[in-house]
Amino acid sequence: MNRRTIFSLLFTYSILHPACAQEKAAKTIGLKEVYIEGGRYKKSAEGAMSIDVLTSDSLQKYQAGSLMQTLSRLPGVNAIGIGASQSKPQIRGLGFNRVATVENGIKHEGQQWGLDHGLEIDQYSIGTAEIIKGASSFMYGSDAIGGVIRLSSPTELQENGLKGHVNLLTRSNNATYGGSLQLQGRNGNWVFGGGATHLGYADYRVPTDTVYVYNYAVRLKDRQVRNTAGQETSFQLRGGYISDRFSSIFYLSNYHTKIGFFANAHGLEPRGVDTALYDRSDRDILYPSQHVNHFKLISRNYIARDAHKIWVDLGYQRNYRQEFNNYTAHGYMPPVYPQDMTIPMNLERLYDKEIYHMTVKDEFVLAAHRLTIGGNAEYQLNNIDGWSFLIPAYRQKALGLFIHDQYPINEQTILYGALRYDYSNIHSSPYQDWFASKLENNQSANIVRADELRRSFNSLVWSVGATRQMGLWEAKLNVGKSFRGPIAQELAANGVNYHYFSYEKGDASLSPEQSYQMDLSVARRTGNTYIAFTPFFNYFSNYIYLNPTSGYDQFYGAGNQIFEYSQSKVRRYGAELKVEYRPLTHWKVELLGEYVRSEQLSGSKKGYTLPFSPAPSLVLDLSWLPKSSTYFKESYLSLDSKWTANQKHIVPPEEKTKGYQILNFRAGTQLVLGRSALQLRLQVQNIFDTKYMDHTSFYRLISLPEQGRNIILSVGIPFGKQNRS
Question: What pTM was computed for the model?
Answer without folding.
Answer: 0.90
